[in-house]
Design brief:
CATH architecture of the domain at 22-151: Alpha Horseshoe
Number of strands: 0
Largest sheet: none
Radius of gyration: 53 Å
Order of helices and strands: HHHHHHHH
Length: about 230
């Protein structure tokens, strides 16, 4: 191997070594910014670390923390999920799931938060804060269920009252309709039906006929002289 080849090989090995260590350097710089609460600059350093090595679970986890401190919860959750897939160390994996649980609990996604806390405790059962949050989630879940039951009961009572009111209104309407029908069926003394009028007319015509016949008969009989009695 000549001198030029040796220099090239040395340069290549140095470059590979620099690339291999660059992600850790970015992480260290990002950690310093985090300690100084300069979260946006910490985010940039962790992103550089991921660009250097996308399989670095620590870089994803730290980036998630930096994003969370900037109220970017959705983006933070994505980084935590990546870290959870890549992390092989059980203690660190438990920390990732703990943070995911905190995010979900804050978003009132209690069922998902419980699952994350449970996974965290599987990896590291010694975490008391995780256990506390897990129990707290169980308490919140029970309270939510009780509240839902109360709301459902109130809704049912309100529906029953509404149905009862509707039933009473319908009964009143039915009674009104029945009263109106009865009034229609009852004869009005101030009104005369067509049939009654015809009967009365026929009776009057019959009386008139009989009267005319009597008059006619009287006219045909000889008149008697009426004598005055002498005094």
């Amino acid at each position: 191997m000549n001198k030029i080849q040796s220099i090239l090989l040395l340069f290549l090995l140095t470059s590979i070594s620099a690339i291999a260590q660059s992600d850790r350097d970015y992480i260290r710089r990002g950690n310093r910014f985090m300690r100084d609460s300069i979260f946006d600059k910490a985010q940039i350093e962790y992103q550089k670390a991921i660009e250097a090595d996308n399989t670095n679970a620590l870089a994803h986890y730290n980036l998630g923390n930096a994003l969370l401190y900037q109220n970017k919860a959705e983006d933070a959750m994505k980084e935590y999920e990546q870290a959870a897939k890549m992390e092989t160390n059980k203690v660190r994996k438990a920390q990732v799931y703990h943070n995911m649980g905190v995010l979900l609990q804050s978003a009132k996604q209690i069922d998902k938060a419980l699952a994350c806390y449970k996974e965290s405790l599987r990896n590291d059962p010694s975490q008391d804060d995780t256990r506390y949050n897990y129990v707290l989630c169980l308490y919140q879940l029970k309270n939510n269920q009780n509240q839902d039951d109360q709301n459902q009961e109130q809704d049912d009572q309100g529906e029953d009252k509404k149905n009862e009111k509707d039933k009473q209104e319908q009964q009143k309407q039915d009674q009104k309709n029945e009263d109106k029908q009865e009034q229609k069926e009852q004869p009005d003394p101030n009104k005369m039906s067509k049939e009654n009028a015809e009967q009365m007319l026929q009776a009057a015509m019959q009386d008139e006929k009989e009267t005319q016949e009597k008059i006619q008969q009287a006219m045909q009989q000889p008149q008697r002289k009426q004598l005055k009695k002498q005094w």
